[in-house]
Design goal:
The chain is mostly beta strands. Helix content is about 5%, strand content about 50%. β5 and β6 form a beta hairpin. The longest helix is centred in the N-terminal third of the chain and has 6 residues. The chain is flat.
Length: about 325
């Protein structure tokens, strides 16, 4: 959209995916013509036209959108699209890896197709002792330390749609071998500053998004899951899950928290007054990375006689926010 409304020239861009290589036709269509003779007769702007003087197509080596789950980044594509770099390909532990010698750096564009939450996973190791890799992606900067054993590192971020530069730089004294890079779209990252809300989706079958007292919530009227959220846990350990939910009547409302289908904890909303509140539970995570966290309604209740008498005879489950952070943060 060219919306400056001042006859100036500017450059606009958009991102799209191509599933198959080869010949394709690109069409640029003018979709909002305006012609008003009354305005023109008054000497006013009443005739909108379009002028296009340049079109360029550039391949972005890494792209991810909210409909993607996990994107494995191809190292050959990364290096092929970089004009100058001292990073080289080598074999480590029988697999190809990018070698970052001390001082080596790599800058590549990454396309985010949608606004939202993302995470990046970098799997690697150092030659010996401790290797240090500075990672900058947009406004997010982290320093990662690698040992001589392959291990994953995770970084969570909020991104707006567009192309952002990923900058990797070895500022240590040891070689760092980057063995894998993955981009995760629209997960809940288990750290401070991140939370799931209904706008992110992941509503389970049998539940629905609705309004309650001005709050947008996921609602379930019968026993079963409300949400099934992909969560990226950056490390092993104990995490605190905080759920914002309603103390529906008749209480208590009981939720099970499951990780990959296995119950890890339970919370009770038992004030029995229709108010909203928070409940927390601690869970143990044995393996870092992507897992599915399910919040399930455990104790549905319905009594037609109570409902007909105007009393509390229909217990429902409502939640509108889930946060997961390491214990101690």
């Amino acid at each position: 959209s060219f919306a400056a409304d001042d006859d100036s020239w500017s450059e606009e861009s958009l991102l799209f995916t191509v599933a198959l290589p080869g010949y394709h036709r690109v069409s640029i269509d003018f979709v909002n013509d305006v012609y008003d003779s009354a305005l023109i007769d008054q000497g006013l702007d009443g005739d909108r036209n379009v002028q296009l003087r340049r079109l360029t197509l550039n391949k972005v080596p890494a792209a991810v959108g909210k409909n993607d789950s996990v994107i494995d980044v191809n190292f050959d594509d990364l290096l092929a699209d970089v004009a100058q770099t001292t990073v080289t390909m080598t074999r480590v532990d029988g697999e190809f890896a990018m070698r970052f010698a001390p001082g080596s750096e790599l800058q590549v564009p990454v396309a985010f197709l949608d606004d939202g939450a993302y995470a990046i996973e970098l799997v690697g190791r150092s030659e010996r002792l401790t290797g240090i890799l500075d990672v900058t992606l947009g406004s997010t900067t982290r320093t990662l330390e690698f040992s001589d054993t392959s291990e994953p590192h995770f970084i969570g971020m909020q991104q707006t749609a567009g192309v952002t530069t990923l900058h990797l730089r070895n500022r240590g004294e040891q070689d760092v071998y980057l063995q894998a890079m993955r981009l995760y779209a629209n997960p809940l990252f288990a750290a401070d500053g991140f939370a799931w809300t209904p706008e992110q989706g992941y509503v389970a079958a049998g539940a629905a998004v609705g309004e309650d007292g001005g709050r947008t919530a996921v609602i379930r009227g019968g026993t079963g899951p409300l949400v099934e959220i992909p969560v990226v846990f950056p490390k092993t350990g104990v995490y605190r899950v905080t759920i914002d939910g309603q103390h529906d009547r008749p209480g208590p409302v009981i939720f099970n928290v499951l990780i990959d289908g296995v119950r890890a904890g339970q919370v009770y909303f038992s004030d029995n007054d229709g108010s909203w509140g928070q409940r927390t539970v601690q869970i143990a995570v044995a393996q870092p990375g992507l897992h599915t966290m399910t919040i399930a309604f455990d104790n549905d209740f319905y009594d037609q006689n109570l409902v007909d008498a105007g009393q509390d005879g229909d217990r429902n489950a409502l939640i509108d926010r889930v946060e997961v952070v390491p214990v101690g943060s």
